[in-house]
Design brief:
Blueprint (H helix, E strand, L loop, with lengths): L2 H4 L3 E5 L5 H10 L3 E5 L10 E4 L4 H10 L2 H11 L4 E4 L1 H6 E4 L11 E6 L9 E6 L9 E6 L3 E5 L4 E6 L2 E6 L3 E4 L10 H15 L18
Parallel strand pairs: 1-2, 1-3, 3-4, 4-12, 5-6
Antiparallel strand pairs: 6-9, 7-8, 10-11, 11-12
The chain binds glutamine (GLN).
The site of glutamine has 11 residues, from helix 5.
């Protein structure tokens, strides 16, 4: 295998529901080899995983019915597979939702999220977000019926806030965004994630999936 192929990390995109095709394009753009994940077996051999936006209730129910939810939990919680969760993907990685809806979650991240938090009237909006992890220039963020992070535990670093609410965060193996980085041409979020996945696989970088950059801010 050529050195180029060796350094192309295999990153799965959960393709059960939602905006998965755009993530696959973004991953390929930043040098990863994307692979669609529909069954538990598709998780074999992955270096990282993206859980896209969509509808978290549907995602949890569909994945739960096929046994995939348990496999996702095993991969990301028990084995520490690095994961990027966007919007609904962030919701399913949370340990709980603020309203205590009974919806199946993967869990594992010490955050509580509020679904549709910005209100139904402003279902969608765009904002120039200060996300130091991605560099000094603001990131154009597309929010679609977006959640926010209501509380974050001590092992979670909040990476960006909007209107006083935490909208991006990470822990040792998870990077989560309330918005849709795959829907713009800006590839910095995917680049940071894939670089972290590659470093981790090759044992050349820090244990964290994502390099440092963001100031440590507590979610309120
Ligand atoms: N509001 C959706 C949910 O609760 C998430 C929206 C999205 O992923 N764009 O699952």
């Amino acid at each position: 295998m050529s050195p180029a192929a060796l350094s192309r990390p295999r990153v799965g995109v959960l393709a059960v529901q939602g905006a998965f095709a755009e993530h696959a394009v973004a991953l390929a753009d930043v040098g990863a080899a994307p692979a669609e994940v529909r069954t538990a077996r598709d998780l074999d051999g992955l270096d990282g995983l993206v859980i896209p936006g969509g509808e978290s209730t549907t995602l949890g129910l569909v994945a739960g019915r096929s046994g995939l939810l348990g496999a996702l939990r095993e991969a990301t919680v028990d084995r520490g597979l690095p994961v990027l969760g966007t919007c609904a993907g962030m919701i399913v990685l949370a340990r709980a939702t603020a309203c205590g809806e009974h919806q199946p979650l993967i869990g594992g991240m010490d955050i509580v999220v509020r679904r549709n938090a910005f209100g139904r009237q402003v279902a969608s909006f765009e904002a120039d977000l200060d996300l130091p992890l991605a560099g000094p220039d603001p990131l154009r963020a597309v929010f679609i019926r977006a959640p926010w992070i209501e509380t974050a535990g001590p092992d979670v670093e909040v990476l960006a806030t909007w209107d006083g609410h935490a909208v991006a965060a990470r822990d040792r193996t998870r990077l989560v965004m309330a918005f849709h980085p795959e829907l713009t041409r800006d590839r910095r979020v995917h680049q940071v994630f894939v670089d972290g996945v590659r470093d981790r696989r090759e044992g050349t970088g820090p244990a964290e999936v994502t390099r440092s950059g963001g100031a440590r801010v507590r979610a309120q």
